[in-house]
Records
---
Amino acid sequence: MYTLYYSQGACSVATQVVLRELGQDVKIIDAKQDNNFKSVNPVGAVPVLIDGNKTLTEGAAIMLHILNKHKSSLFPENEDERLKSTQDIMFANATMHPAYGRLFFLAQHVSDEKVKQETLNAAAESINQLWQVIESQLADKSFLGGDSPSAADIMLTVYSRWGQYFPVDIIIGDKTARMLDAVQAMPNFIKTDQAEQFATAD
């Protein structure tokens, strides 16, 4: 069994969904409820995955670790397709995730309301450009990986929900919106949301 440190609604949602899709049992621990979490990850960020005697602390590294360890359609075996899947995961983790992260940073650290709104709008425009990239990639397929959801689709779906917390217009194309809806309708995505809500309220 894996142990996953999470924060409700954070990027750790994607890790948990993928673990469930891989048929793996996972014990989840709310990092905010653990007074010693900094001893687990000095950076203080989630996800953190405990796999036996290994402690993994970077989202993309965790994702690639579990995908390499457990064969599934989420991570194809064909070399070219696997390279594309890895690139999609890194785009989600290293490009889209930080773009949304700027919204959180600006909301927390800019006190002048006019300046805050202007900078939030600029950050949102950058996010919208990234969603246009995804929309173009979905021109001839339902998911980034083809006919079924990939790990990157799951990661992007988690990030897409963060825009609701800010007074900005996040513009998502029709094909992308259908992909995001389909991922959120996955039984293991719903199960993960429910598990986090139950564990946090416990």
---
Amino acid sequence: MLTSQRDLFALPEDTHYLNCAYMSPIPKTVADAGMTGIARKQVPSQIMPEDFFTDSNRARALFAQLVNTPEAQRIAILPAVSYGMAVVAHNTLFEAGQNIVVAHEQFPSNVYPWHVVAQMHGLEVRTVKPPVRLHRGDEWSTRILEAVDRNTVIVASAPVHWTDGTCFDLEAIGTRARDCDAAFIVDGTQAVGAMPFDVERLKPDALICAAYKWLLGPYSIGLGYFGPRYDGGKPLENHTFARVGSEDFRNLVNYSDQYRPGAERYDVGEHANFVLTPMLIAALEQVLRWNLDEVQQYCRTLTAELFVEAEALGFGFEREKWRSAHLFGLYAPESVDLATVFARLRERKVFVSLRGRALRISPHLYNNATDVAALVEVLRAESR
């Protein structure tokens, strides 16, 4: 089983960073890859034409391995989740009277695009609210299933809810979407890299992930898997490297009307970023060294006593079956002011997030018992 991997990171000993769902610290190897990339750009004669493709294809292959798809050409290099969702919106046919299903308070990048296309095409956005209780995961997934019908064109979901880690039954939701011929679109940012995700089993039509959270990569780069539904689509941009034959720099003015195969056509312009892409590769290589079931088990074991203590102090949380181990919310009793707790945590150098009514905790392998103890210390002091 995995043990603490703190030595792979540069976190100060007195910093208790339980906030990977906000932004991960990058491993030392990822920082080194970025510095090497910067140095390389200082002497650009080192950058050959083939380098515009080699690193990008390596990143595709690593991400394909991580999410279990044999087709690396189905992976696009993206700058953000919003960009990937825009690709989906740009390549989905909509008809007035259709509907789009989303979860209540889903992350904005997986909501705003659907409101825009709904206004443009006369669609209904069905926002599925959870039951008004702490133990809501099972019924929330059931409500999403019930909201999908033959007029649903997109089901936009995530493995876990970004505010409190409530798990969704993605397998059932994806099956229901396919039964209704709806596109099944998943924002995997708060899960992929921390828990297993199997494209072959879950069969999303698109899976979009930012790299700066659980993939342990830099900001402003991400990855997207696009399934057969989006074969032959039109990219958002018309840059050079989206076209067939762009490897041949001598003949770039022999313009081509043919896009590159698979999802490569959906790459963002200048995707061959000579600083960010090597960092992304190093991050993916590190994530792939770990068994993600063991990452979940490590986080679950690390925080077991936290839940015992939190419950004794009156905090509420989702049942273990329906919450992720790497991201979860603690709901404070009415007698506790979460804003004050948050301020006290910062003073103690304990870093978490406030999301809605939840104190969001998101540990990873760089955390240890000392980090959790510091969190519990503040919760005890502020709950008296």
---
Amino acid sequence: MKEAIVTGAASGIGLATVQQLVAARYHVHAIDINEAELLQQMARFSDTVSMHAGDVSDASLWSTVAQSLHGGLNLLVHSAFSLEAKPLHQQTPEGWTRQLDVMLGSVLHSMRELHGILSHSEGSVVLVSSVHSHFGLRGHPAYAAAKGALNALGRQMAVEYGPEIRVNSVVPGPIMTPIWESVDPETIGEAAKGTALNRLGTAVEVADVIVFLASPLASYVDGAEIVVDGGWSIKKNP
């Protein structure tokens, strides 16, 4: 059985990715900082998932996860994120650092621990970025900076680690995840109208692209940014 690691696994795109990978016959190591939510969500998957509650920006967590692997690693998915939605001049240094540590530092720590086993398995890495990396949207300076850096880091890693390890990024647009639950219906409707498909996407639709990127069907896809936004980034109202 193939093995995968997914961060941010207790909700949203991370949870959907765990679901789709289990369906594709992976054993998944699910990581999330919210232990209670992780336990609740992973209960449905029985022995096909190993749970790791912890902070992805903590290097020691990755050492523990590496020791729990069953002998190989075919896929590493970085989906965890942190968000402090404020203009740059209102960002706290702690909030700024936290967002970069979660979204970028976690990649550093994971590769320090897992590079050898990923290389030996000829595995794949998928970084979950965002359309914030391509477009300016108010109130997301550290988030946008981190997601833009993820895109650049993915390209660098693809060059650094190929041909043994393929590295790609997915770039989701408006996806109906828990972060949207506090948004009023009118705003959600406006976001939907901003897409060519006239709706928000689902977390499963992003997860399906992640599973594809890890599969033999994507064997010649490396260093790519795959946009999954329902045409949001190309639609312009006249």
---
Amino acid sequence: MSWDNLINEFKYYLKVERSLSNNTIEAYVRDVNKLSQFSTADNIKLKNVSRQIIQLFIADLNKQSISARSQARIISSIKSFFKYLIMEDYIENDPSKLIQNPKIGLKLPDVLTINEIDSIISLIDLSSKQGERNRTIIETLYSCGLRVSELINLKISDVKFIEKYIKVTGKGNKERLAPIGSKCLKYLSIYINEVRIHINIKKGHQDIIFLNNRGSKLSREMIFTIVKALVKKSTINKNVSPHTFRHSFATHLIEGGADLRAVQEMLGHESITTTEIYTHLDKDYLRSNLMQFHPRS
């Protein structure tokens, strides 16, 4: 019963039985490997891992200045791993059962204003080779509230131009229909019909919308690079990533009075609790307006 063998079995379980995405699976495995490395450094076999060992491991994470939020994620992964070992009868007692997650405050993500989003799009050089593509990427991220993984895997066949919907494949390969605005549809049409047709597309990527210079699907890293480069050119002093456009999409909907359940469906959240963070953002937005404009503030 070696660490490596059981971690590989756990990885297979996450993929086949829980149908998690590759990114989520890799995160679980990476977290469990941290405990494995900590234990094997002291020649501790998996069957001998106790609650005290896990507590020492958490203390070591503290020494490395790993944030409470990251620690909570690592502990959650370890708990899932030991639950799997119990389920498969590899161990009888769960050493992680009484381990508590560190307390973490509500971390509200940065949100862009509509003017800031417009200013970012205005900085794109449409005369450049990838100008139309990059404008369409930013507009699609914001107009549909997509995750980066959803954006890079978006297919031409997923876009329903007449119905004004796109089919999105989210976490765990769960599909949802997301409404799409006229402006975004216009940019998609321009890019697909006037720019993309001139690319020498590699086999297997014919239906993928967003392509690189070599005719292949864009990587997650490339989307981050595009966004970071545009923000660097701007005067925006916020921590902006591709996910910021998703946060902004949800926040602007709720500020405008959208139903929380509808926003949950559009974002593809399994639990409405995840969506509720945007109600906190909305309250923060309202309070900032109160402080700015109320005469007694």
